[in-house]
Amino acid sequence: MLTKKCTECKLIKALTEFGKNGFRFQCKSCIKEYDRKRYEKNSEKLKKYQQNYRKNNPERAKEISRKSSQKYKEKYPERIKEYDRKRYEKNSEKLKKYQQNYRKNNPERAKESNRKWRKKYPERVKESRQKHKEKYPERIKEYERKRKEKYPEKVKENNRKSKQNIKADINFRSMLALVQSQSIG
Fold first, then answer.
1. How many alpha carbons lie under 13 Å from residue 32 in its C-beta half-sphere?
2. How many angstroms separate the Cα of 151 from the Cα of each of 51, 161, 164?
3. Is 5 inside a domain boundary?
4. CB under 8 Å to 147, separation ≥6 — which residues?
């Protein structure tokens, strides 16, 4: 392993401690300490510089911010999850109202977002539907009754298709059992 002596702390450290290619004279920890002190000393000046840069280069500043945010999300997904969970607990009513308002004002985007989510998490959709059925059986019965009244032909057609699917499933299972019993025997 290649080593090098830091000109600041005078310690001999691995070459990897001196930047990406090992070309720096000070080690990473000394550089970090120097930067911290420099920021403390010139914080107001640096803040003004950053504000001016953002004002004069809004697109570049957005891009840098987006990349930085993405790196953080990739590096610390658990922190993000925990933060989101606490934020939701603290502001659940406010967030629910915001979401309702957004869906009301952007119905097409909301539908598309829901469709993508259902496609991405089919098992969670199934769980949610099952919980809903268990929690609100009266609502479901009422919904089905109204649906039968409003769309009697659709309901009949769906029932007919469902019966056909059940028959096809039974036929498939019996064929599968027959094939399995023949291959065993």
1. 6
2. 61, 16, 20
3. yes
4. 155
The answer to whether 17 and 9 are in contact (CB under 8 A) is no
Question: What are 81-137's pLDDT values in tens digits?
Answer: 999 999 999 999 999 999 999 999 999 999 999 999 999 999 999 999 999 989 999
Sign of CA dihedral 43, 46, 51, 52: positive
Q: Give the structural domain span for 37.
A: 1-41
CA distance linking residue 145 with residue 132, whole number of Å: 17
> How many domains does the chain fold into?
1
- Is 151 inside any structural domain? no
* 4 belongs to a structural domain: yes
Residue 76 lies in a domain: no
The phi, psi pair for 53, rounded to 5°, reads -60, -45
Strands 12-14 and 3-5: antiparallel
